Amino acid sequence: MNKSILITRPNHDLATTYLYWWSKKVIDKCQEKEIKYFDLKGKKASKKNFDSYLKRNNPSFIFINGHGSEEVVTGWNNEILLKVGGQLDVRGRIIYARSCMAGLKLGKVSVDSGAKTFIGYTKNYVLLFLTTKKTRPLSDNLSALFLEPSNLIPISLINGNTVEEADRKSKNLMKKNLREILSSNKSDKKEIASYLWHDIKYQTVIGNNLAKI
What we know:
By secondary structure, the protein is α/β, with parallel strands linked by helices. The chain is 42% helix and 20% strand. It has one domain: Rossmann fold (3-Layer(aba) Sandwich). It has helices spanning 14-33, 47-57, 106-112, 141-158, 163-182, 189-202; strands at 2-9, 36-41, 59-65, 72-74, 80-83, 94-98, 117-121, 203-207.
């Protein structure tokens, strides 16, 4: 097992485009810490490439950005990368799926198949954004309330933290953002706060919470 990261970041729709750009901050951290990474961006986030990079490079951490369900996570154009009932090359790895609902079934099956830990969400991963910023996702302060905390999971792991510490830091930042929103003058502050609380509540860790990459 190599101390390295396989990152998938398709950008075939608005939601994945936001994840694509915000994942660049995780890549920046890899470069800062001189951690080897493999970036399956855009159309490269295919099943064929995903399986090939897993086999050839044996990364210790898989960071998936894309749509999902209880049983699958997907890449470019929603092509399935991992699924319940499929061949799961996950033994010894930490997986973080920034995807809807994959923590419900796929996470448990992945750990049962030998993954050290699966971090994900047992319901939809909610992300709000400003329509005026959709061509400039990194300047979107609304999406930052959600994406900076979820970025803290891989960034904390890259910094040498355990999964438990990474999960806690992520949730603590969401709670901080929630408190700040509720104390603001925003007209939609209750709606924003409710979605932040949703992500806090349904972010889950399955497996060894003391694992490190």
